[in-house]
Amino acid sequence: MNHGLVLGKFYPPHKGHLNLIREAKKQCDFLTVLICSLEREIIPGFLRFEWMIELITDPNIKLVWVQEENPQYPEEHPNFWNIWKHTIESYSIHPIDIVFTSELYGDPLASVLGCKHIPIDIERKEFPISATKIRESPLNHWNYIPETIRHYFVKRIVLTGSESVGKTTLAKKLAEHFKTNWIPEFAREYLEQKPTPMDESDFLPIAKGHLLSEIEAAKTSNGILFLDTDLLTTKVYLERYYRSEIPWLTKRALSLQYDASLFLDIDIPWEKDKLRDLGEEREEMKTRFLESMEEANRDFYLIKGNFLERETLAIDYVNKIKEWPINATSFTKEQMILRKIE
Hints:
InterPro entries: Cyt_trans-like, NAD_biosynth-regulator, NadR/Ttd14_AAA_dom, P-loop_NTPase, Rossmann-like_a/b/a_fold. By secondary structure, the protein is of the alpha/beta class. It has 13 helices and 10 strands.
């Protein structure tokens, strides 16, 4: 049996990695893929391993998560190559016949292992991408991120503020401009369909419905997701109308992390509709929202002016956000747990 080896960090996995594995498997009977991680890396190893299990389904490819804190470069340790030889051989069921890489270390590694090296797209002509580039600017390399894991890299931008400040209008405009998804305020949809007036018992299903909408919309978003309000807004109105709290809601309202927030000012006319009744409390509600943003430790961009000025300003801010690197909080177990709906 011809046994091949691919190893890497897959930090994160991209389409170049998948091509490497696919082409390697064509040239061997059985392939071992080592997913190597370090504790300090901001995308945890367990998550990259889970992603690879989802992405690689060939029964003749064995995926192994390697957690040893090995040196990363030969200059870091005088026994670098032997350390890695021991690690690789300890995870390999069969002797290794071929090492497949898209890296310059392939030849010396094969020499240490006593096997053949077959380079695949080593000049990155077919897939001109690296995991470093994705970490530094995921939206600029969106097409190289496998579709099934893209939602982890979506920039989630919350539009927040009190009643009648144009959140829905602006969210729609931004989604159209950036050719992506937005999610409407779930409370409005929920309450418009409710045959009886709003009461305190509505707030938990509203909160869960809004969060579920976010989770689903992120799966098909084109790099950015615009949210017309979030759970922090639901918390503010629960406190305003009923002076109470729901632990499930409070925890998520204060702990869920987003890439950015756009805070819409009250400098446009208030428009009444059947779900708005706080027109005389605009200043007070603006203050409540600002206090809630501080309580949740959220920074924000202030959006003000007429509708055209708001749209122009928001587009400028979002264009800056598009250039940001990956958000470390998106990959924590805590955030993943908070976004699960019981």
